[in-house]
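Weekly modeling sync, notes
Attendees: S.R. (lead), two postdocs, one rotation student

Agenda item 3: backlog of single-chain predictions. S.R. asked that every request posted to the team notebook include the full sequence so nobody has to chase files. The rotation student volunteered to paste the first one in as an example of the format we agreed on. Action items at the bottom.

Example entry:
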Amino acid sequence: MTPGDQNTGHPADPGNDSVVVLFKGGRLPTWHRLSRKEQDAFSQEHVDLMLSVSRRYRLMHLEGFRLLGPQNNWQRFWVIEFPSLAGAETWIRAEMAPPYGRYGYYEYHLARRAYPDGVIDRSARPPAQESAGGDPHRIPSLKTDPSSLVVLTFRRWLPGAAELSPEERAEIRQARTLRAVAQRHGLIRLELFRLMAPKADWHEVGLAELPSFAAAEAWMEAETALPHGSLTLLTMHLARKWAPAYFAQWVCPPSAD
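Predicted structure, as returned to the notebook:
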């Protein structure tokens, strides 16, 4: 899996025009100074508002991941997908709306789905989320899912690397290494998101779900293997899925038309 060209990039899934919001979020310390009654009231108002946006704009995918090592106020990473930019914009505005929005840390990036080149044979797109039933307006006790680990890899080419040939970048060798790790350790899924507006230190993020710490460690070693690893700027974080069954309830079923 290689970073997209910083000038042109690889195309996203040609059959999917959806917009993905990549959200680095968390709660500010001031949240914990509120009373439990205030927290519950603000949370319920927030959930009701966000669910109204998800229904109005046909939320396609919502998935959260809690970092094993929080980065100051950044505690969770979210993938939020809508069929239109209007849905993404409305979601962001609603998420930051007070009173709940006064106590959050927000960093948003718009992206498109893409394919991890040459690593796995199946589509990079995950299985469609299906509601587990129940009322999403009723907030359960939210917990991480301990059944797997997720490696979040933020990357870009280092200066000059994008102009090298695939052979000079050892792309085939790196893809074979990742594919071998995927097969040996039972890669659960692999997704790739490319920013619409690249950042100085990352242009895309890969999401690899694996069954164990040993598998995650092997995957990270493969991502940084030389010589390919010497040409990319990589930042990696380990995470667990955050209350996946509950947030699957937020997703709207595909339209019949």
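Discussion: group reviewed the output briefly. The chain is about 25% helix and 30% strand.
Action items: rotation student to repeat for the remaining queue; S.R. to check formatting next week.
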